[in-house]
Give the backbone structure.
Amino acid sequence: MPKLVETSAYRSAFQRMWGRQPARMHCAVAIIGGSSHFMPEQRGNTGIMGQTSKTATKTPAPDKKADARAGELRPDLCVIGTDPAGVELAFSAAGLGAGVVLVTLDDGNLTPEMLRLRSLGGQILTEAGDFVDARRFSAGNRTIRARIFVLATGAEPMQPAIEGVAGVTSAAEGALLVIGGGHEVAMRAQRERAGGAEVTVLSDTAFLSGFDPEAANLIRVRLQRAGVTILDVVAFDACSVTPSENRFELATPGLAPFRFDRLALCGPGMPKLAGLGLEKAGVPLAHGVLALDAAGKTRNNRIFALGAVAGPDLAQHKASAIASILGQVFAGRAKAPAPELLTRLCPTTPAIAEVGLAERAIAASKRANYRFYRAPLPDGHIKAVTTAKGLLCGVSIVSERAAELVVPFVQTIAEGKPLQALASLPIASPGPADAIAMVARLALRERLRASWWLKLLRVLGLTRLGSR
């Protein structure tokens, strides 16, 4: 035990430094191993030898809530699932300095993208889990209280109501049956046919029903000329699939049966949301589908959806959805593009790109309130719809470069400008962009013909402009 010696040296040093004596304090020097240390003692609490006086302070009881909070993960962003869009969001957020946790919901192998996320400081939990309440998610033995949760669990193909289709086991090669009616069907059929496969498309709706009928028909003709068989508007409940000589045979009403070896289900899938406890988080489902706003946000302001689980429209605009969620993470506001500015894209060859009001959506009684313009392209066309005053409402483009050609029209709609404003763009010629200026000049010519001052000049015989 160290030898304790009462000393007044500390009091003298305190007096010289502060100009007064230390209050309510004893001072001792502990001589330990030849070295001395000042040991101030608070009167009325603990003695020099560690003996506690009658007025000693009690040890506080452990705070169980504080201990629970200390075991929680509190990132800025928690991505649930491994949809590629979700992994890309996690990687982007981590690269910008946000705290990120990725929950894979399984114990599968980590992809190179996930390993890169970990190198940026992101944390990966290979555990299944569910929501505890509206603010917390439990994965294994860890609880996550993130500022923003993002569901990126993907979707699984929906089984069509065709008898026997669930028992089809696809071969590695051979004739392919593609079931569905969206742009994925056309893209898959064209790719497989280019590889030499025999392809049949079966749909219960019109082929590419979500696009302009004229544009859809151009793609249909192109596929049929390549050798693809297209059967649309078929009643699935009247069809059946049966095994036949190591192959499968499809019987359809009014058509001869045909055989196939492989099956591909395309189109909107059913979101994979089972077991996530969304009801405890205050996120309702309608027939297994999330109710989302334009930014992909659910009824719970902390929970978003991204990728295939958010539906085909938001899934096709992955970059915009990621940017919107990053805005929520870093700025507290998710700014999504207006629905009328979302491009509808069919990535075939040639491709279809549409934005804004579709001609098929205009009722016959309202067509007089709109104007329609068309310019040809080597492999398609540009069709534009404007109001009677010339404001651009929508466009449909069929071209190999449709995804690029639609961009100026999107900007014009966003700015609320008339179609003829595109006539002033300095477009190099010749090239596919010539059609942009051509369709804009058509609108400009019509506006000039309808101009009152030009009509007056013609009446006065001062000009012949616009007379033909």
